Records
---
Amino acid sequence: MVSIFSGLIELQRHDTAVAQLHHRRSHLPEHEALMALAVEVGSLERQTAPTRASRASLQVKMEALESSVHDLDVKIEAVQSMMFSGTVTSPRELQGMEADIVSVKKRRSELEDNELELIDQAEPLDAIITAADTKLVEAANERDRLDRAVLAAQTEIDVVASGHIVQRADLVRTLDAPTVALYEATRSKNRGVGAVLIEHGTCMSCKIKIAAIELDRIRQLPVDTLVRCEECSVILVR
Ligand SMILES: [Zn+2]
């Protein structure tokens, strides 16, 4: 027996499908993976921040040393060109310049030793930073992959949902407007369920068995009579 309410079951089928698709869209496993990845990246960045800071301060010291070494080179060069220019002829003065070069070279060598020490200190830090950077690049690639997967899944869901929405709109045009309005009002108060079939004498919304006597009464009603579940108020369709 087909009642005027059976169209509501079809409407409900589309609405349930759209609701399930919405739920799936906002609970994609990739979303969870992306959140876990963000947590992982955040903790890795926090862990390596002190190492990066130490490495940066070593870099500043190394550059300062390099600049001092360069200044000494310039000085050595200047003294040497003065010595070989022939303008200084006094042996005492030349000797003084020689001694000057020796002392500057000694200072230069000390600075270079300091620089080597800093390079030694930087090595283990560089190893930690390189390993962290490798992991961060991998994480960025994984995030891109997940972003693409989310987009693909959402696009696929949207296509299916749009199909239901179009079919639903076509269906609504064929249904009695007050009946659809009642369905909508019921659905909004009943967790998205507006109309269900009675199956095995049970309301398929609240799953409560309808008393045999009530079921008999319902069965004898004209097909266009509105029947609602006494428990959950859903529209019952026979
Ligand atoms: Zn019910």
---
Amino acid sequence: MTVFAVTGSTGVVGGLVARGLAERDVPQLLVVRDPSRAPQLPGATVARAEYADTAAVTAALQGVEVVFMVSAAENEHRLDEHRSFVDGAVAAGVRHVVYTSFSAAAPDALFTLGRDHWATEQYLRGSGLTWTFLRDNLYSDFLPKLADPQGVIRGPAGDGRLAAVAQADVADMALAVLADPAEHRDTAYGLTGPESIGLAEAARMITELTGVATRYEPETVEEAYASRAVYGAPQWQLDAWVSTYTAIASGVLAPVSTDIPRVLGRPARSLRDVLTAR
Ligand SMILES: NC(=O)c1ccc[n+]([C@@H]2O[C@H](COP(=O)([O-])OP(=O)(O)OC[C@H]3O[C@@H](n4cnc5c(N)ncnc54)[C@H](OP(=O)(O)O)[C@@H]3O)[C@@H](O)[C@H]2O)c1
């Protein structure tokens, strides 16, 4: 029987994957930073390790064959943390890693964090492990959170469109891959919703389905940096925030992928589905 480990189970996507495995009676190791916050699941054991601690990751993953690796929280050192985690997985003898990457991962991705995802993919490709990349579009679940307290989604996205994906679909794809890792070996999937929409339309849908009045106001890039200056965030964070929108404007997040319907045998969840399920 394959031995699985799941990271990020204290968060949304990893939590859904961990619960999905438990529902399928699959034993698993939950690798978490804080065991007191790990979900209590039948068949699950818990180990403490954060990505940056290669020795702790190596110790935690002893005997594990397949790992679901959630990308780390956004921070300046995320790529180093990912490399450290992969090093620990290799040292522990893991065979396969399923990694949550980004739709437009590229060395020169407009969305600055897409560069870290690309570099992480490259590191995994060169690690000797086999891999599956789940290249997620922006999360549909995340779109309502783009609005400020006045219900305005502000940013330099122009009339660009995106094919946002449901976090539940990311988890379902992960579970499909974990059910047969060999079948999905060394494969990168594009994870999107079933349609490509602009932020004005997304705002209309959020208003209609959540009752929270929301609208989209395009900004120039200069206006976007200026309107975010009040937060006192470091430059990498500002660049990440603003480039989320410029990536949408560029059209790179617009293409709809057929990977979810092909692998899962059903349509991907739309933004409407996600907002209705809330
Ligand atoms: N495509 C998108 O729109 C989008 C949007 C936001 C984020 N993301 C990425 O997608 C990932 C998953 O999304 P999510 O909603 O499930 O995020 P989430 O709810 O914030 O969960 C992230 C999980 O990763 C764990 N984690 C983060 N950094 C870690 C580290 N350095 N070492 C060990 N564990 C770490 C967290 O543990 P703790 O509970 O200990 O913090 C948490 O369990 C995020 O981490 C982020 O990289 C994508």
---
Amino acid sequence: MSNLKFPASIPTLVGKTVSLRELREEDIAPWFERATDAESADLAGDPIPKSIDAGQSWLQKHRDAFTNKSGLRWSMVPTGSSTSVGTIGLTVRPSEPPYAELGIVVARQWWSKGLGGEAAEMVVSYAFREVGLREIRAEVLQRNLASIRLLEKTGFQLTQILPPTQDEPEVMLAYSRSARST
Ligand SMILES: CC(C)(COP(=O)(O)OP(=O)(O)OC[C@H]1O[C@@H](n2cnc3c(N)ncnc32)[C@H](O)[C@@H]1OP(=O)(O)O)[C@@H](O)C(=O)NCCC(=O)NCCS
């Protein structure tokens, strides 16, 4: 796809409070716990899996996206720990020029400790510097105040207020950060 430079494997990115690494089988149990948190799933717009058996498909979906060069997804591991407490990723959209959409979910016990913000900054910087993307976008529910704060503190700007539609009955906000502003 265009001139994007996809890595041969998901790189480990190390921050002060959190490290980002490839997804592994051991991440399925913590993923299931997060994915079945109804409030979190509602805020993220994710379906709630019926059983942990869905974990293998979740993992495979992200591995396939990486192989197809349409997505990069990392596990978030707090400094001093080895357990995944969230995931963050980019879905590449094949427009010209291409852009990517940011997705992130952090386990409730870790909310508001700065992990999400640091992870987002690392991923966006990596995407601009190494992958060659020029724009990252994100869409959030207008009531998702933590996500809005995360995006604004990492340099995203509001580009559009999206009115309710049949598919999405709530007001959404569209945010964007372009490589120019780094
Ligand atoms: C959104 C989410 C990823 C943020 O991750 P996080 O690790 O808590 O992020 P951070 O701690 O870096 O930043 C969150 C910010 O929101 C603020 N915040 C939290 N709840 C808030 C609220 N109700 N109103 C306003 N600000 C709020 C925090 O204080 C923090 O700001 P600060 O750094 O200035 O103190 C996490 O809350 C989450 O997983 N939510 C459920 C899933 C979701 O909404 N995903 C995003 C979908 S677009």
---
Amino acid sequence: MTESVTGKLAALDAAVSDLSERAFGFLERLVAVPSTLGNEAEAQALVAAELERLQFEVELIPIPGDIGTRPGAGVPLVSYEGRHVVAGRNGSRSPALLINAHIDVVPAGEPALWTTDPFSPDRSDGWLVGRGAGDMKGGLAMALLAIEAAQLCEPAVTLPVAVVSVIEEECTGNGTLAAAHAGVTADAVLIPEPTGLDLWLNGIGVIWADIEVQGRAAHALVASEGVNAVDAALPVVAALRALEQELTRESGVYCAANLGTFAAGDWRSSVPAAARLGMRIGFPRSLTPAQAEARVRAALEEAARSDPWLATSPPRVTFDGFRAEGYALPEDHALVEAVAAVHASVHGAPPARSAVVSATTDARFYLNQFGIPALCYGPRARAIHAVDEAVELQSIVDGARVLGRLLLGQADR
Ligand SMILES: [Zn+2]
């Protein structure tokens, strides 16, 4: 390594360190905004302002009303009116690297179970606690820290990097799909999801199912004359759990059929007439979303055949939200090698390459629909989608040192 390169990397590390407190402050402001589905505008405005401060040309990209008809799209859940993707570019239409981060967060669940308010970020023991801190506002903070530090080291150079802050990663992926169709692409994409500074190169397929099970309403005093929809739903849940086992066995990857929401009844002395189950079903890469839906329908029909009540009143299923195909970036791809080599130069050993990730990310669109290599590499988080979600602040710094080197390396070319 020449002295000038050594000096530049030392300057980069110093800049990352000097700017880290500011990056944590940005992250705190971002986590304080509850950017759940449909409520992303305020957080997106914060991101846009930060990108402008970093000299990016900022563009608000709408989601077309017909997005659901595009290959790979999810089924929209709420209107796209007034909701945008935020892109930051610097002249070059298709730069070497695109950073993709999602601004949407899942709901807090049971706020009372949290140590602190989920949207009042709290720092202790080197972690920042708050909904979205790990998944994945911490990753966006890491990326912007790396970009600002690299800019300080190369003030005369326009770094070949763009940033896109998307919505709906947690339910359809349509934000990323719309941005890519609008031309926000690059030679390669890095998504700073909370990988713990490992590399995530693939994902399983995921669909969402909305299942309605009918019962027969009655007063509790003649409950036996009615059919309790909650009881009627239990064999349906059992059938989907059996499907989970089947799909997991077929693929060798954990394909959770998660019962995420359940609603039934409105009065303790009434027999509920309907129950509604919201399920997330993971499936192997070898299946298409349509084939996975067919498997769900078949499992429900089987459950209905073997239950006297369900046989007369079969469950109804609709599919909305995720229609995510599985995806994989080859482990020996040049992008993987490049990130791994830079990580190794900072941390002394290459990052782990997760064998199989039993979830999905927006990387699938770049790989499957646009032929662009994409991977996930980001900070260390705990309890994502759970109580007391948090991101480890040091991992934001460590990841920024790697990403900063990657950006400077591309600027050199
Ligand atoms: Zn995420």
